[in-house]
Write a structure and sequence with these properties.
single chain, mainly alpha, 6 helices, 83% helix, 0% strand, globular
């Protein structure tokens, strides 16, 4: 395992650890207010998931393809994809700083969640077609758990 691959594995762990922090702080700082809880969860999840993916794609793309199960195909990590994640992250931070509120956070977060859903299908398909690695299995499972947590926090917030 190269140093770059180790960094990529670390970034993968940090992405999902950030989601766990989002869940924790949603309940700890959310003051039993469903919209506050969802907003905290959405902001932290978006910044960690999209932000660390953008960092990985910009600075550690060689190992990223291997960790994701795409082998040495550097083209799988296209420049516009990296910019997409960076744009989502910056937009969420901008919305938070300007206090745009629950529906802005919801909209930005849903773009991220829908993308991760499609990405999970792609990871699973790649695993079936080529070979399964840890990410081709974990990404769909973690995305399903992310949907479960999203629905759990979102339904009360929409009432």
């Amino acid at each position: 395992m190269t140093a770059s691959t180790k960094i990529n594995r670390f970034l993968e762990i940090m992405r999902w650890a950030g989601v766990a922090l989002g869940i924790f702080f949603a309940f700890y700082l959310g003051n039993n207010n469903p919209q506050s809880q969802f907003s905290i969860f959405a902001i932290l999840s978006t910044v960690f998931l999209a932000g660390f993916t953008a960092i990985e794609g910009m600075f550690f793309r060689e190992g990223g393809g291997k960790v994701a199960g795409y082998g040495d195909q550097g083209e799988a990590w296209r420049r516009q994809s990296r910019m997409h994640f960076l744009a989502i992250t910056v937009t969420m931070i901008f919305a938070w700083i300007l206090n745009w509120g629950f529906y802005a956070y919801l909209g930005i977060y849903m773009v991220l969640l829908v993308f991760f859903t499609f990405s999970s299908v792609n990871h699973f398909y790649t695993g079936l077609k080529e070979k399964f690695v840890i990410n081709t299995i974990l990404r769909p499972i973690l995305t399903i758990l992310l949907w479960v947590m999203t629905i759990y926090l979102l339904l009360p917030a929409l009432k």
